[in-house]
Amino acid sequence: TNGRKPLLMAGAGVLALAVLYGLWRVVFASGPEQSTNDAYVSADFTLIAPKVAGFIDEVLVEDNQPVKAGQLLARIDAQDYQASVMAAQAMVATAQAQQMNAQAMLERQRSLIEEAKATVDADLAQV
Q1: Could you tell me if 74 and 58 are in contact, meaning their C-beta atoms sit under 8 angstroms apart?
Q2: For residues 22 and 16, what is the distance between their CA atoms, to the nearest angstrom?
């Protein structure tokens, strides 16, 4: 055991030095954070949102590029909206055709009514 005692003392000393070094690093040494008393960062960030939903087709500005109010920043893919417009136009055309058919049917019914009135008047005149 006499031969092991100096070895244990040396190991304990190395362990004590490692603990002291670790404490020194935590308390005094600078870690991944850097600090200063006169530095600052200023930035203006504005959240933006489109008026309509869709996939962006083209981005018209670069990262960190200054922009002005009202400036076009991106183009939204218009295919979905063009398809909706075409569908709405088809519905309008269908409604117009139905209205024209109804108008023609109304005119036909009016002429049939006039014809029936004339037949009634002729029959009454013969009586």
Answers
A1: yes
A2: 10
Model pTM score: 0.46
Residue 71: which residues within 8 A CB-CB, separation 6 or more?
A: 61
**pLDDT number for residue 50:** 84
Per-residue pLDDT, averaged over 118-122, amounts to: 92
Q: How far is CA 45 from CA 32, 42, 50, 64, 113, in A?
A: 27, 10, 16, 10, 74
The candidate with the shortest Cα–Cα distance to 50, out of 39, 63, 59, is 59
Token digits for 47? 């959240």
Confidence at 32, pLDDT banded by 50, 70, 90: low
CA 40 vs CA 34, 35, 36, 46, 64: distances in Å: 13, 11, 9, 19, 18
pLDDT at 6 over 70: yes
